[in-house]
Design goal:
Length: about 260
């Protein structure tokens, strides 16, 4: 569930021009920011919502939190006054979600003493023979806590594929939820990148360069679903690919 600015163009707005490219090393300016009003950083909220998403077990709650995170991404290039209003609203939403965290369940020790079984008469069946085979030591469980901690750091730094790699061998519910978050984060970022490629391609005049750029955008989109078919944006990406194919057909080219 992404609120990308380029999606309306993929749905059919063929004449709307995309944003001008940003020079290398320069940060994008906040659109419409009033003079003297600094932009708002959503990083503190993103850190809090990522923790809540990782803890969420309920599907509806997880979807709400992901929608809140997507809204933070969308507001990065808005004017500072709108950013502040959305920041304050999302801060209250996260406080409510944080209060709604399930309380940890303490495990009380078993206090009931083990009663000795009353011995009856002599058994009539013979006892099984003692095994002389050496006993193998039981395998000790591997503590996943350090791996999960490393994956959280990778997620906070947007190193989504590193997080996926770390979590692929851990099967706890927490690790599974974090891996899903990493896959969706990577898919969202790649979809945004492919969207900018598509917008830049459409600004080119008809010809070989335009067709090559459209094909590059299509390749980037298709690679997302090929690598992680289960990502949360798979259906939207398929629609985006169909739109790129339509543009290629208009130019007389195959995908």
């Amino acid at each position: 569930m992404s609120y990308l600015l380029w999606i309306p163009l993929l749905v059919g707005c063929a004449t709307l021009q995309g944003p001008p490219p940003v020079a290398s090393g320069a940060e994008a300016s906040v659109v419409g920011t009033p003079a003297g009003v600094p932009p708002v950083s959503f990083v503190p909220l993103e850190e809090r919502v990522n923790v809540l998403i990782a803890e969420a077990q309920d599907t509806d709650r997880r979807d709400r939190l992901i929608a809140a995170r997507d809204l933070m991404q969308t507001m990065r290039n808005k004017d500072a006054i709108a950013q502040r209003k959305v920041y304050d609203y999302l801060d209250q939403v996260l406080k409510i979600e944080e209060r709604a965290r399930p309380a940890s369940i303490g495990i009380e020790p078993i206090r009931t003493p083990i009663q000795e079984e009353t011995l009856g008469g002599a058994t009539t069946s013979p006892l099984p023979p003692l095994s002389t085979a050496p006993l193998s030591p039981p395998a000790l469980p591997v503590d996943p806590t350090p791996t999960i901690a490393q994956a959280r750091v990778a997620l906070s730094e947007a190193r989504y594929l590193d997080a996926v790699s770390l979590l692929s061998s851990v099967t706890t519910p927490e690790a599974t939820a974090l891996r899903k978050e990493a896959v969706d984060g990577w898919a969202r970022a790649e979809r945004e990148r492919a969207g900018h490629m598509f917008l830049e391609a459409r600004q080119l005049p008809p010809g070989g360069e335009r067709i090559a750029s459209l094909r590059a955008a299509r390749t980037a989109l298709a690679a997302i679903n090929e690598r992680f078919p289960e990502n949360a944006y798979a259906s939207q990406i398929a629609e985006n690919i169909a739109k790129v194919d339509a543009d290629l057909a208009t130019g007389g080219a195959r995908p």
